[in-house]
Amino acid sequence: MPGNQADIGVIGMAVMGKNLALNIESHGYTVSVFNRTSAKTKSFVENHEDKNLVPSFKLTDFVNSLKAPRKIIIMIKAGKPVDNILNQLASLLDKGDVIIDGGNANFHDTIRRSANLTKDGIYFLGMGVSGGEQGALHGPSLMPGGQEKAYEMVKPILTKIAAKAHDGTPCVTYVGPNGAGHYVKMIHNGIEYGDEELIDETYNLLRNIVGFNVDQLSKIFAKWNQGELDSYLIKITADILSRKDDLSSDQSVPIVDMILDEGENKGTGRWSSEDAMAIGAPQSLITESVFARFISMMKNQRMHAAQVLPGPEKKDQVKPDKDVVEEACQALYFGKIMSYAQGFVQLEMASKTYKWHLKYGKLAQIWRAGCIIRAKFLQKITDAFAKKPNLQNLLMDSYFAGIAKKYQKSARKIVALATLDGIPVPCLSAAVSYYDSFRAKVLPANLLQAQRDYFGAHTYHRIDRPGTFHYTWYKEE
Ligand code: NAP
User: Which InterPro entries does this chain map to (predicted)?
Assistant: First the structure.
């Protein structure tokens, strides 16, 4: 095998690495591939004999197989494994080579790794990759952050392999320095959690309050996918609800009814909430969606609580009116808008905190195709930021303000209906509360400040004059 022949290398031959390697190869590049367990590299290359793939079974051979300056994408389990591989690569690479971590790294790790590799003159991009297996193969949404010079070196490849939006724009853009790409991917995933929870709550209330069966719900979601809610997650929900269990003898049982209701997570939603707390961003939708997964994991406790804790009495429950399906559709869209409003506010606050200069309109643009949250309505976000690049909150854009005005009544009715009937709607209710908090001229934080001043002499500001004040709440004896 002649050395230095491959255009780019991929480390990690699991679902994402294999499909990304095939995607890159399909655009005319020769791709070197390496995996910790050699058997996986071997079987991958044997299964794709006709492709320009160069297998290596030692990391040194892999590095030597690449054209200079070397370009390496790492697609392995996030965390310590990435540090291990980077340590090994650092001693094998030359100044000016580029490493791209395409996994779901925590952005704090990416900032640290970027600083370490920069000392050795090695470029480092932390790149969010969204779209799962199919996206990696046919076109993902890519969110690269790091040195802009390094991005320019890999831009031709990334532009070719990225998903293309309906207007032909590739779903990749330079996001910003050091951890910016992984931060944006983290928020993408957090928003994905919110989208999923909003859909799941709507499914739950329509099923348990109105009494639709799973087939009927599949048709409802399929219909919603023809309108404003048109999105990948609504589409797959309709499909999931139409599927029957393949393991039961009774083939009419919906698969969803055979799946244990314990929602797992891999951490990106939690990280989004943690950083929202760290930078002071009001992020109730993502946070509630993470908590919804946590409480779902307490299955045994819930089973016990269901026996002993009563819900509303039948006589107190409310009957949905005839427009409930339309109202639920509007409530879901309203919730989605609040969630994205919060997501973009968090991005703006993070951009200032970490000095990233994020371009919000470009981010909405690269989420329009390829990724899990792809949706028709992302075009509206792109349009909003095109009109006003420094838009502070999506709710200040005329389209989103108009929808909020039109659909708030339905959102309130649906949240009230669910609450009165004992169905949990943590994200839908958080959406309504966020809307009402954001538009409130006066919040009870005046009383809060008085309480803080009372017990801790924390002082307060006044509405009628500048300065810091302390009230004499009690006289020392
Ligand atoms: P994964 O299951 O997260 O990781 C498996 C890969 O990591 C294998 O190649 C494995 O090698 C390697 N690995 C594990 N521990 C290692 C270590 N200590 N040293 C070296 N290699 C090690 O794979 P994935 O699902 O393809 O995801 C790859 C990355 O993309 C992850 O960060 C993931 O979070 C992110 N991501 C995944 C998806 C998705 O839909 N799956 C979507 C977007 C992003 P062996 O074969 O030797 O075990």
Answer: 6-PGluconate_DH-like_C_sf, 6PGD_dom2, 6PGDH_C, 6PGDH_Gnd/GntZ, 6PGDH_NADP-bd, 6PGdom_BS, NAD(P)-bd_dom_sf, Pgluconate_DH
